[in-house]
Amino acid sequence: MLRPVKLLFNVNVAWFFISHRLEIAREARDSGFEVHISADVESQEEAELLRREGFTFHRVRLRRGGLSPVYDLAYLRQLVRVMGSVCPQLVHNVTVKPVIYGTAAARILGVPRIVNAVSGLGHAFSGLKRRRLISYVVWAAYKLALGRADVRVIFQNESDAHTLVAAGVIDVRQVVFIRGSGVDLKRFACTAEPPGTPAVVLPARMLRDKGVVEFANAARILRSKGHTAEFLLAGKIDKGNRSSLQASDISRLEHETGVIWLGHVSDMARMYQESHIVCLPSYYGEGLPKSLLEACAAGRPIVTTSVPGCRDAVRHGENGLIVEPRNPEAIAVALGTLLGDQPLRKKMGMAGRQRAEAEFDVHAVVRATLDVYRSMLA
């Protein structure tokens, strides 16, 4: 009998894999792949969940934020050790450091097939002066990691692909477009908005660059103008991210602006059912934010910013409104427009659901990803 193909996912942290890549791993397992996952963990429950799924989990330690030659070299050594023990035929790297160092480890060991997923270029490519050094370093590292004909690069939006192709980092023939991580259309069902006081939710980790502070200030502006609504923050503090707010920061925002922090919400489908508007005012480009795909599926209108990824999930005036980043006044105007017009909210919500059904179904994302694997193996 033929031995199963060994597939190794390298991801920064296990909860991200569970949230964004679990369905792909399940389909690969059910298709006969032997699935291995290397990642750091924030709790042992994450590792146990993956093992219960029938995957082999390899704990590696990774400092996600910033550049540190000492820690990053240690991470590379761990990846070489894991790959040396697994001997995968195919490696799928996801997020920046796993892409850079996972590709390096695969080349050291002669792994023949590499898939790299670019989940947004983020702040390193924002053009801000204080980011230029890290931008140059990440750009050079991406060129080394991505710029070979035997590597396939999955992008979630056209802007990111255009940026790297135009800069000569990759060849256009390496590019594969897959629309985000997808959304479960049955779980995130489209429901009528609930009666009562409108609820506006920001579903994201409590990071500054998700626009949490601007959202809170927009809430304050709207309240000062007489709008009655609940403004909710649904997400956890991310201690591994340098952009993360602290509990004291969020408490101050609650006190000063009236927003309500819910912390981590395990049932986001219900969260959307109980909300009226979804807002994600990110500063920097994202791949294709999963929260916005879920909002589309749930039939909720969206207010987001004109950055890559976010603007790819929303057609301005169709299933939401797009504003410039870092502008609480513009966020307030957009939210005020939707708060004052229930028929518009319903119309945009239905348009979002139609987009989700046509473009964002998780099953289509899974099939497209497995097709990439099979084409490389062939």
Describe this structure in words.
The chain has about 375 residues and is of the alpha/beta class. It folds into 2 domains: about 5-180 and about 360-375, Rossmann fold; about 200-360, Rossmann fold, CATH 3.40.50.2000. Helix content is about 45%, strand content about 15%. Helix 11 (about 290-295) links the parallel strand 11 (about 275-280) and strand 12. Helix 5 packs parallel to helix 6. The radius of gyration is 21 Å and the shape is globular. The model has no long low-confidence stretch (mean pLDDT about 95).
Strand content: 15-25%
Give unreliable regions as ranges.
Answer: none
Number of strands: 13
Count of discrete domains: 2
CATH fourth-tier homologous superfamily of the largest domain: Glycogen Phosphorylase B
Describe the largest sheet.
7 strands, parallel
Q: Percentage of helical residues?
A: 40-55%
Structural class determined from secondary elements: alpha/beta
| Oligomeric state of this protein | single chain
Shape designation: globular
Order of helices and strands: EHHEHEHEHEHEHEEHEHEHEHEHEHHH
CATH-defined fold name of the largest domain? Rossmann fold
Query: What gyration radius follows from the Cα positions, in whole Å?
Result: 21 Å
User: Helical stretch count?
Assistant: 15
CATH class of the largest domain: Alpha Beta
Q: Could you report the average pLDDT, rounded to the nearest whole number?
A: 93
